[in-house]
Design brief:
- The chain is an alpha+beta fold.
- Among the domains are: 137 residues, no CATH class; 70 residues, no CATH class.
- The chain is built from seven helices and 24 strands.
- The strands form seven sheets. Strands 1, 2, 3, 5, 6, 7, 8, 9, 11, 12, 15 and 24 form a twelve-stranded antiparallel β-sheet that branches. A two-stranded antiparallel ribbon has the order 4-10. The protein has a two-stranded antiparallel sheet with strand order 13-14.
- A hairpin with a 6-residue loop joins strand 8 and strand 9.
- The longest helix is centred in the middle third of the chain and has 11 residues.
- The two termini are 23 Å apart.
Length: 509
């Protein structure tokens, strides 16, 4: 795991060696009498700061349950929506915040802490109360010996507040602007409440925005939300695939013709070592009956982001996890924070970008780290694939050297494209803050009302932030206000996958 921050706070945050994705969750135990599940948790380089970004990191935790006789059918456990029903014990005083829909809880440092930064050297014990409701309903008789999976995703809290979209770099640009002009557009409480309305209020031409006015229910980023600290990684896709039915698995890996979960060695991406993507079937499933078991060729791939995610792959994962896609307005909020825009800036808030020369230590391990510390650390202009999440953070790195956003989110520029709700030529005005409900269709698709269903051109989806293969001549794609892909991309359509397409989710609460 890893983290970064702003201004003078940065130098404090990077006083220790930082590696990404070091979240450890222990094996759960279930008490049928109290209907509680208990496990241990720890992670590295946690924080809570009361100045600068004034935010904290957290772990989003949710539970999946499989009755022993249910032939592989996993369901999402709905947890109590009362925070006091959950507890965290240990020396660090962590707290568990329930959410209204019961899809999971957020575990984080307590509000009483001020500028607390550091790793958790020992574990804390978390006890979560299940509500007894499941989505979908449990199939088969359940007992205290059922299988449980507790899954955690590192998140970053993005507080409520106004911010700007667009960087004012050009009056003819397709980036967001004030009434179609050259100046950045302020997103404040009034705009969030009333909505942006017609395209002319935020872009210079009707071909650059939604075909229908954006109402106040559309997430412009003013309200608080949580954002995944890292891009969805390969282990997270493995965890997701291993809770699906055979037919759901077959649908997701069948994007390329002829691929089925009944064959050992079948890869989720195109082939072994294809741009460092190594998710594959390790135990064959039985057609229409018993799902396959997926795994990774190498353990270090668990920490490498998952490429080849089309829009349906990403939204299926997010619905399953109780999260939702982010809008491109929220993308700029997470990157820029409250600071006034800098023309042509990257996610770390300046126009400097490193050479990305590929000088790494511990390559192909969970500790894969950039040896070169420079301002604007970004993984681009390479053809090998994405680098381990948080790769740029080393001892004493500041925000620019770590390539971090204002709020401490990683790889918003470079590594893999962020897929967001937005773009042009589509009516995405019905998209709201509704989160996923943990359940998918029979063919493994997200089914949340208002989410764009398909990727591709004019689909209500857009690529943001550049990727590992973005060339030096195209480096503008890595800039946080760049909307070069406002028309959408055929590469994230239903019947294809693109090596540089990744993504992450957010959650309203």
């Amino acid at each position: 795991m890893k983290k970064v921050f702003l201004l003078s706070i940065l130098f404090v945050l990077f006083s220790v060696k930082l590696f990404a994705n070091n979240l450890v969750i222990g094996a759960p135990t279930y008490n049928a009498t109290t209907n509680k599940i208990t496990f241990t948790i720890k992670w590295d380089n946690s924080w809570r700061v009361n100045s600068g970004p004034s935010n904290w990191d957290a772990v989003w935790i949710f539970v999946k349950r499989q009755p022993c006789g249910a032939n592989g059918i996993w369901s999402h456990a709905v947890l109590s929506s009362t925070s006091s029903d959950h507890s965290v014990t240990g020396t660090f005083g962590l707290v568990a915040d329930a959410v209204t829909d019961g899809m999971g809880v957020f575990v984080h440092r307590p509000s009483a802490e001020s500028n607390a930064i550091g790793s958790f050297a020992t574990t804390s014990e978390v006890s979560l109360k299940l509500s007894g409701v499941y989505n979908p309903e449990l199939t088969g008789s359940s007992t205290s010996s059922d299988n449980f999976k507790v899954i955690g995703i590192e998140m970053v809290y993005v507080p409520q507040g106004q911010f700007y979209v667009g960087d004012g770099r050009s009056i003819t640009s397709n980036s967001f602007s004030n009434n179609g002009g050259a100046s950045p557009l302020l997103i404040n409480a009034t705009k969030q409440t009333n909505g942006l309305g017609d395209y002319s209020n935020y872009v210079s031409d009707p071909s650059y925005g939604s075909v229908v006015s954006l109402p106040g229910s559309f997430p412009l980023g003013y309200n608080a939300f949580y954002c995944m600290k890292y891009e969805v990684n390969q282990q997270q896709i493995v965890d997701y695939l291993n809770t699906l039915s055979y037919d759901q698995q077959a649908s997701r890996i069948g994007v390329w013709s002829g691929r089925v979960p009944s064959t050992v060695g079948t890869y989720f991406s195109y082939a072994l070592n294809n741009f460092r993507q190594e998710i594959k079937v390790v135990t064959a499933g039985t057609n229409n009956t018993i799902p396959a078991v997926f795994g990774l060729t190498n353990t270090y791939n668990a920490f490498i982001p998952a490429g080849y995610l089309n829009w349906q792959d990403l939204t299926s994962y997010l619905d399953w996890a109780g999260l939702r896609p982010m809008t491109e307005f929220e993308y700029e909020k997470v990157a820029r924070g409250t600071v006034y825009p800098v023309a042509n800036e990257y996610a770390w808030g300046t126009t400097k970008i490193g050479t990305s020369n590929g000088n790494f230590s511990s390559t192909n391990t969970s500790s894969e780290t950039s040896n070169t510390i420079y301002d604007g650390n970004c993984w681009y202009n390479h053809n090998v694939g994405p680098i381990r999440s948080g790769f740029a953070a080393t001892a004493n790195s500041n925000r620019s050297q770590a390539g971090a956003t204002y709020y401490g989110v990683m790889e918003f520029s470079g590594n893999l494209y962020e897929q967001c709700v937005g773009g042009a030529g589509f009516n995405y005005s019905s998209f709201t803050t509704t989160n996923g409900d943990g359940a998918l269709t029979n063919v493994g698709l997200a089914d949340v009302t208002g989410w764009p269903k398909s990727g591709g051109l004019s689909s209500g989806t857009i690529f943001r932030g550049g990727a590992f293969n973005t060339s030096t001549s195209e480096v503008r794609y890595c800039q946080i206000s760049d909307r070069s892909y406002y028309q959408g991309q055929s590469e994230n359509g239903n019947t294809t996958r693109y090596r540089e397409a990744g993504g992450r989710g957010v959650r309203s609460f």
